[in-house]
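In response to the reviewer comment on reproducibility (Comment 2.3), we provide here a single inverse folding case reported in full, input and output, so that an independent group could reproduce the run without further information from us. The structure tokens appear first.
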């Protein structure tokens, strides 16, 4: 939870591209039309 804290809506990643432990991460999130932030 301390490395990737999140709350609703959970925006989970699909793939990690780069990782520097304890420093940074570069990731990919594929977005679909039925994602919760598109409603309304």
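Designed residues, in position order:
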């Amino acid at each position: 939870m301390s490395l990737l804290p999140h709350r609703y809506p959970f925006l989970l990643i699909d793939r990690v591209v780069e990782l520097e432990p304890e420093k940074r991460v570069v990731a990919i999130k594929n977005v679909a039309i039925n994602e919760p932030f598109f409603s309304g």
